[in-house]
Structure formats: C-alpha cells, structure tokens
Amino acid sequence: MDPFADTLRRLREAFGSGRTRPAEFRAEQLKGLGRFLRDNKQLLQEALLQDLHKSVFEAELSELIICQNEVDLALKNLHTWMKDEPVAKSLLVKLDSVFVRKEPLGLVLIIAPWNYPVYLTLVPLVGALAAGNCVVLKPSELSKGTEKVLAKVLPQYLDQSCFAVVLGGPQETRQLLEHKFDYVFFTGNPRVGRIVMAAAAKHLTPVTLELGGKNPCYVDDDCDPQTVANRVAWFRYFNSGQTCVAPDYVLCSPDTQERLLPALQRAITRFYGEDPRSSPSLGRIISEKHFRRLRGLLGCGRVVIGGQSDESDRYIAPTVLVDVQETEPVMQEEIFGPILPIVNVRSLDEAIDFINRREKPLALYAFSNSNQVVTQMLDRTSSGIFGGNQGFVHLILPSLPLGGVGNSGMGRYRGKFSFDTFSHHRASLLSPSGLEKLNELYYPPYTASRQQL
Ligand code: NAD
To answer: Per the database record, which ranges form the Aldehyde dehydrogenase domain (predicted)?
Structure first.
C-alpha cells in the first residue's frame, strides 16, 4: 500500500487543470501563507522553543521575519517576475517576438531539515507557490513541534487541492522519492543529498541541493580581537551552533589565537552569563543522537572555554577547542553544534591552501582590518557564500542568493532566485504566419550559390 499515491494523484490533477497558473491564484496562496505566519506567530514561537529552546528573538530574526519578508517581496514583485522577458534579436528574427517565458514546473517536492524548521520549509515554499506549482512539503521529523504546526495548521491557509504536507523520516522520504516529481528541493546533509539526487535521477528530475560542510573562518593578525570574537561567537553559538552557515572553525596564527581566546571568553560571558546553561538565549541540541555525537567531539584537541554538557537537557556549553589535529573527527565532519575549534596557520597563504585542499564550503568568512586580506580570501577561494568581517550574510538580504557549490550543494534560492528556481525558463519565438518568402531562404536544395552563407 503506497501512502502517498492518492495525494500525489490529486495534486497532479490540480496542476493539470491549470488552476495554479494565474497570478491571482498564486497571490491568494502567498497571502494565505502570510496570514498563517501572522495568525500563528505565537504557536510557531512555542514550537521553536519546544524543538530547539529557541528564544523569541532568534525565532523572529532567523525564521519568522525572514519568511514574512519573502512573502511580502514575492507579492510585491509577482507580476514583474512572471512577465515574459524579451531577449536580444538578430536580423533573422527581426519581425518575430522572442522572449523567455517563466512557466511553473508542475508538482514539486520540498524536503526540509530541523535546524531552522520554519525558514527552511517556508522560504522555498514561497518560491514554489509564486512560480505557480503544486507542492508537497516534507518537514523534518526531528523538529516535532514545528512539524505538527506545519502539518495541522498550514494547510488550512492554502488551497488543499494544490498543496500537501507529508510526514515521515528517512524511510518515508525514500518511499516518497520513488514517485516522479517535476522538481525536488532538498536541504540537509551531503550524505542524504546523494540519496535524494540518485532517487531523482531515476526520473530525470532536476534538484536543488542545499547542503552543509565545514565553514572556515580566517582571522587575520591585523584585527580588533574583541570585535571579531563578538561577531564569531554570536554566529557560532546562535541556535546552539546548529546553523548551516555558521563558522565551523577558526584559522589564525598562534599570536592571534592568544589575543582571541580572552576576547571569546568575554563575548560568551556577556551573551550567556557566567552559567550559560541557565541563559534563555542559548538553544539546545535537537536530539539525543546529535547530543552524543557532539559530546564525542569535545574529546578532540584541548578544551579552553566551556566543555560542559548535560544529556538530560541536551545542553552543551559554548566551547572553544585548541591544539586540534586535522585528522581528529572535529576537523573531519561538520560540527553543527556550539563547539569552535581553532586551527593555527602562519599566514594568509597557508590559510588559503588549507581551505582549498578541502571540499568547497557553504560559507567562508574572513576577518581583517585590511580590505586587501579580505579581498584576497574572496578572490582565491570558493564557497557558496562569503562574509568579510561579518557572519550572517544570508539572513539580511533576499537579493543575495543562498546556495552551495561542489560538496555544499547546487542551485540557489531566496527572493527572485527562488521564483526562477521553481520556474521553467521556456525559450519562445513567435513568428508571423505569413512572410513565407523569408523562410524559403532556409529550405533545400542547398544549391551552389546558397553555400556562400
Ligand atoms: P538530514 O539530511 O539528516 O535531513 C534532512 C531531511 O532529509 C529530513 O526531512 C529527513 O527526514 C530526510 N532524511 C534524512 N535521512 C534520510 C535518508 N536516509 N533518506 C531520505 N531522506 C532522509 O539533515 P538534517 O540533520 O535535518 O540537517 C542538517 C544538515 O543540513 C547539515 O548538514 C546542514 O549543514 C544542512 N543544512 C543546509 C542548509 C543550507 O541552506 N545549505 C540549511 C540548513 C541545514
């Protein structure tokens, strides 16, 4: 018995009927999504508190406001984004109308992770709805509070013949992926990304893969250590480190490390107090499995700040490690928790070599008072996104695309990038039905005089 067959058939029929195509229908769905966010703000905040001990401030800044802004942006620009885009013409098509039409892809699947369980399900959804698709949403089974709100409440705000939330973990997701979709948008880790892409390949279904990795953070000798420590600590320990674009490790000289450590300690105490465990501003680890994985990483290198943990509460203190070896697990896997290893390098060149020897990260950060150092890092490396003296690039602007490169993923979204991701860009040329004389230039026989073209 296939639990998804009926739902998918219903959505396919709805798409086939053409009802998702008009701008008015798309706008209605987007308005519904906006209402869902406004009406259920408190419910979502409570769910995020339950799932990740996320404070209201972090929930607003990194989830709810971003979703609301995406809805507003899509509504404001929907007609412009949907317009046919005229392209440059050559003499041969002077009398024709030549343009790119953005048409919906059909039935799309969005698979989301748990770390920003509202943002990472609803921001892609905005793009998919704006582009006129029918959508199946698969939230993460680990963020249970949010999953419940998305499954029970969200459908009430959208046209249920064109939209469905399906539930389940790895097994159900694999079963779902046996079906043919017209697009799969996946956010998660690179191992699962490979499973998703292999399943999609069976149907030749295109994918966006928003994956993770180890994000380097280079700190130059020429810097103000306290400013750097504040910015790095804030973003490393935000959401208890469970952020795909958080700095994963610091690269700096031994001298800079000595200046940075007291500054990091001051930043952590200022943000979370003497006892971070009692701070309402610090999140918790999503599951016991992830907690145990992270506790294992605390054994790498030498703990110089933090290091405490408590399984009953899935609490891990904001931690800094030094004397870390490249071969240790903390430098082999994406940390995805409140642990920050520092690795020593002697120069900018050595840092760049270190980064370029590894998989391309999702994010890369460089901190320096020298613009030249920051620019060199930007020019000589590759990553999905880049931050010079700043760590929360992706949060601010929907005009900047979010997406990885190489092992950190493929494709991009936010704002108009989302609309384009979920649209087929159809090359269209409309010729007048007459003027046959012009077309005769192309027809055989290709006599000798015609070979001169
Ligand atoms: P995950 O890959 O374990 O899970 C993501 C989704 O895939 C979930 O809905 C889950 O149910 C499903 N899934 C899990 N295992 C599966 C399997 N074997 N077969 C089929 N489906 C499966 O990821 P996660 O732990 O939820 O999230 C953490 C990862 O996501 C990190 O690597 C992080 O960097 C990455 N991430 C990336 C971005 C980005 O924007 N690039 C954003 C957030 C998280």
So the answer is: 12-424
Domain encompassing residue 295: 216-407
Count of beta carbons in the 10 Å neighbourhood of residue 329: 12
Report the chain's C-alpha Rg in angstroms: 25
Average pLDDT over residues 274-285: 96
Question: Can 162 be counted among the known catalytic residues?
Answer: no
Q: Are 110 and 234 found together in one domain? A: no
For the chain, the average pLDDT equals 96
Strands (E), 302-392: 302-305, 309-310, 315-316, 319-322, 339-344, 363-367, 385-388
My answer on whether 106 and 246 are in the same domain is no
Distance CA 301, CA 328 (A): 8
Say if residue 113 is in the same domain as residue 225. no
- Taking the C-alpha atoms of residue 77 and residue 409, their distance in angstroms, rounded to an integer, is 27
Distance 44 CA to ligand 1 centre (A): 21
The helix or strand, by DSSP H or E, that contains position 270, with its residue range, turns out to be helix 254-272
pLDDT above 80 for 393: no
Write the pLDDT tens digit of every residue in 409-424: 999 999 999 999 999 9
CB neighbourhood size of 46 (10 A): 16
Å from CA of 193 to ligand 1 middle: 8
Instruction: Please tell me the residue having the least CA distance from ligand 1 atom 23.
Output: 188
What domain count does the chain have? Answer: 2
Given a contact cutoff of 8 angstroms between Cβ atoms, the answer to whether 195 and 111 are in contact is no
pTM of the predicted protein model? 0.96
Kindly state whether residue 440 falls inside one of the protein's structural domains.
Answer: no
Q: Tell me how far apart the alpha carbons of residues 46 and 25 are, in angstroms, rounded to a whole number.
A: 31
Location of structure tokens 């180890």: 214
**What is the ipTM for the molecules in this complex?**
0.97
